[in-house]
Every structure is written in structure tokens, then in C-alpha cells.
Amino acid sequence: MILNTFNLEGKVALVTGCNTSLGQGMALGLAQTGCDIVGVNRDDPMETEQRVKELGRRFWSLQADLIRTERTEQVPCVVEKAVADAGKIDILVNNAGIIRCEDALNFSEQDWDDVMNINSKSVFFLSQHVARQFIAQGHGGKIINIASMLSFQGVHAFPPTPTQKARSWA
What we know:
Blueprint lengths: L11 E5 L4 H12 L3 E6 L4 H9 L4 E5 L10 H13 L4 E4 L14 H29 L4 E4 L25
Parallel strand pairs: 1-2, 1-4, 2-3, 4-5
């Protein structure tokens, strides 16, 4: 099996947004390779936790609303709690993200802030704090950032994409 070539036995991965979909798949894939998982989600990821434990790995659930990163104390608390629970962090998977579909002319400031907070701000500051933890632990680690295709191509109904091309309304 291909997973035999990827042995992460004894490693701890912090995975944001692992309730469903890609995040859940990444958490399970890491668990299959030997990682214990710290899941950071708004809601309790009961199915993911159960499936990780069925693989013989440990799972710690941390609830945090990464969309509300204006409360900057939240990110260091997530990292501190993850280390307190799991003992260390070896891998960070920044997977949590959202999209709001609305024409640029009608896109609200709150929608803009929500998308930027979770898709950009939380990614940067989680990465920063986990990198500090890697240094404190005396060894490196891995940071994996997940992005949708909208990060690479603009679409008029999704304004807060970094490479959005200007749309002419004239």
C-alpha cells in the first residue's frame, strides 16, 4: 500500500476545518499514516473523531471560530491548548475556509471581513504561532495551506479572491 511509504508515526497534526469534506479526508489520511490529530472546528467533529480513533490514533477536539480573528488572543490559545493536550505539534494543516457568493456591487463589508479573516488572517497567524512552537520544540515541522481554485482565478460573484480580474460595468 502507498501509505506504507509515508510513516508519520508519533507525529501530531493540527487540522483546521476537519468536520467534513477535504478537511476530514486530510485528518483521516494523516491518521492512517500514524499521526494523532488535533481538530480545530466551530462545531464538534464527532464523526471525524470517531473515525480517527477507529484507526487507533488519538484525537483532540478544539472549538474555535476562526472567522472571528479580530479577537487576536484566540489563535495563541488554540496553539497553547493543542500543545497542552497533545504535547507538541509537528504538522499544521490550514484547511478551514469559507466563500460568500455575491456580486461585487452588493458584497457587504461584513462578508468581506469574514472571508478574509478565515481564509487569510487565521492562516497567517496560526502559521506564525505554530512556527514559533516548532522553534520552541527544537525541531522543524510542516505547514500545509489549502486553497480553493478561486484563489487562482477570479469570478465576478466571488469578490474577495486575490487574483480577481476587474469586471467592467460600463
